[in-house]
Design a protein that fits this description.
The protein is an alpha/beta fold and 196 residues long. It contains four helices and seven strands.
Amino acid sequence: MRNFTRNIFVLIIMVSITGCASTQTYIYNTGKNVTICETDNTDLGKTAVLLETAWRIDQKEPLLRQQMALEETKKAFINFPCGTIVSPDDIKKYNFSTITDEAILKNFSKQGIDSLVILRIEELTPRLEFTFSIPFLWNGSNEADFRIKVVSVKTGLIHTDMRVKRITGGPFNIRPAEWSRAELNASLRSIIKKDY
C-alpha cells in the first residue's frame, strides 16, 4: 500500500511539472496598429517609458510584483527598434492619478522627449483553479495583463492604445509567481515589433 501511495504521489508531481501548457494572448486595440513599431520607418524619436502598477486590493506580494514588472519592462525596451529610449534605468514607477495628461506632456516636452510609452500593469500573477469532480482536476497558469499607450509629446496624438492579456498554462500545471515575468516580457516584446 505504501508503494502504491508513493507512486500515486510521484505521478501527481510529475504530471504537475510536465502538464500540457498553452499560451493565449488577447489584444484589445483602439487603433489599427498591431504593434508599436508597425513598420521599419516608424520613428518615435526620443522616448520615455513610464510605468504604473494598479493591483487588486487583495493582491499578494505587490512589492515583489512591482519589482518584477520594472525589471521585465527594462529588459523588453532595452533595444527599442523604433526610437531611442532615454535610458532603461530611467524607467520608473509613475503615478498618473496625481497629474493631468496636459501636465505630463508639458513636463516631458521641456525635457526634449518626443514620445511617451505609458504602461499600466494590472495583473502579474499565477492562478490555480480546481475542479472538484471525479476525477479531481486542476488548472494552473501565469498571467500578465496590462494597458499600453504611446503618445506624441508635441501633438498629444495617440499612436497606440491597447490592452494586452497573456496567459500560459493548462491542466495539471502548477506555476510559481516568478514565471509571470516571462509572460510580461514576451507580451511586451510581441507588441513592440513582430519577431522582436
